Structures are given as C-alpha cells and as structure tokens.
Task: structure prediction
Amino acid sequence: MRVLLTGGAGFIGRHVEERLVAEGHEVVVFDSFRSDLHAHRPEPPPGLVVGDVRDADAVAKALDGVDTVIHLAAKVGLGVDLDDLDDYVSTNSLGTAVLLKQLAHAKVRHLVYASSMVVYGEGRYDCATHGQVSPGPRRTEDLDAGRFEPPCPICQAPLSPGLVDEDAVLDPRNAYAASKLNGEHLAQSWARETASRVTSLRFHNVYGPGMPRNTPYAGVAAIFRSALERGEAPRVFEDGRQRRDFVHVRDVATAVTTAAAALEHQPPFTAYNVGSGTVTTIGEVAAELSRTYDGPAPVTTGQYRLGDVRHITASSDRLQTLGWKPTYDLSAGLADLVGTSAPGDRR
Result:
C-alpha cells in the first residue's frame, strides 16, 4: 500500500511512519515544518515532501499513486489566546477541506483522519437522581472559588464521572476542538459524496519519545517533563484530580495502521476512541514523572484555564474489535518518555 502521511514529520507522525514502513508499506511523508509546531526541525524522513495541506497544487502532486491517506497535519493544543482562532480554522478546517477536495480529484477513496477526544467537551457524568446528564461549561465564579467539579445541571448535586463512547453527544469547548470536529464533519461529507471510507481516530492524551516540549502547545506531560529537567517542581492546575487517559505514542501508531488496514471493510464513516483504557489524574502523572526523574514533588496551584474540561476519559472497546490493544502502562510509558528503565511492566 502506498500511503500519504500528512504531518508525517511531527511527533505522532514519525512513529506512524516508522510503523508503516515496518509493516511493508510505501510512505510519502508530507509536512510543512511550521516553526510553531516544530521547535527543532527533525532529521527529514525518506520520501519527504515539504508542503502545506492548504496548498492544493502541493497536495495534488503528493497524491500521485497513493492508495490511502493518513491525515495527521494540524495545529494542536488548547491555544494561547483568541489570536490563535483564525490559525486553528485555517490550518485544521481549511487544510482538511483542501485535502479532501484533492482526494476527490485523485479518486483516492480511503482516509484515516486524526481527531481528538476534545470533540466531546466534558466526559460522561451520572447523577444519582437524574441519571446521565451533560453539564455545561464551568462558571468562572466556581473556578475562582476552587469549585472545580461540575454539578448536576438539574439539581446541582455532585456527579460521578464515567467513560464516553463514540456515540456520545459532541460538545467542543475551544477553538482546537471545534476545528477537529469540523474536520470530522467535512470528512463525513466527502465520504458520502464520493462513495469513500473515512475512519476518525479520537486520540486521548498522547505522550512518549519525541513529544514537543518547549512550545506553547505542548501537552501536559511534556510541560511537566520540561519543568523537572530545569530542576523545578511540576505545576499542577486546579486540584490535580482532573481525570484523563494517557496513551503511549507507539500504541497510537499501531492504532493508526490498524485502522488504515481495515478501511476497505468499514462503513463510510466510523469514529474510534484511542486510549489506554486506564483512568489517570493529572496529579498522578505529575507525581509519577517526579519519581521517574527523582525530582521535586509537584505543586498544586489551584490555577485554571477556561478552555479546559474537568474530566474526559473514554472507552476504546470499539477499536479493540479490529484487533488493536494498548501495550504500555503509565509507569512503563513515562519511563520510556524520559529514557530510563521502566519501573513497571508493559501490558
């Protein structure tokens, strides 16, 4: 199979490219090397095409002879402020639209689209009285007072967080989330109009070797790691009890190639959660990294970001029906991130 891999020189992309080659596929790596996304330009992979997915001519040339496209190229992260808004829409929404248009012209009918768990907004919550409910955005006055848990929107009682499945209502809460969901909608439209197949992979918190660290858009594990490498304590927002699913990048790469191999037998559009299946708090990740580095203990600051959700964890059972399963537990994965011997076992 000849695969066009957009964003192939990025953090996840390089692991996906390595996995595709190991499985015997021919890979065309397409990447823009944007300075805000690549703090340090990595060694160019074989078959590299430097270009922007918003450049229709560059995309058209890269599609020559391609059977399947894996679309990872995106501006990621929560963002710095509203000045990022147009860039998220241009890079993610317009970039996906241009790519889909060229796929239609080239008669390429198979696409794996990198989405994100952020399309759900808050995760699943259950009220003891009212069952499953959907709390709205948290109020500033509650966050200022340290009331971080969203209450039941009906009776204001405490809620129990649970796992989201792929059929949950989607409720993006920031510009990045909105742009990724827009990409899903555009891909669904493309699949219907061209009799094609698209698989959307909703990645959870991806971490592992090669993850960006010194950019405003780095993930929380990278931010904690950078602090520890400076000899500083990781600074944990809110109370540190925010629930997340941290999934190792090599497990993500395997999920991508598994989804690509299964496209021929999939419906026109299918979404899959991609997570480790283990619920972990932000505070637990910070503490585990501090232990791995033998560094200072985390400091819980009580600070918050309005675009953050409280809890978001999901079931990846649907993806496992394709034969995929995660292999890294958090202890082994974080040890791999910092380049030490794993104190835990791989699953």
Summary: The CA atoms of residues 197 and 267 lie 6 Å apart. The radius of gyration is 20 Å.
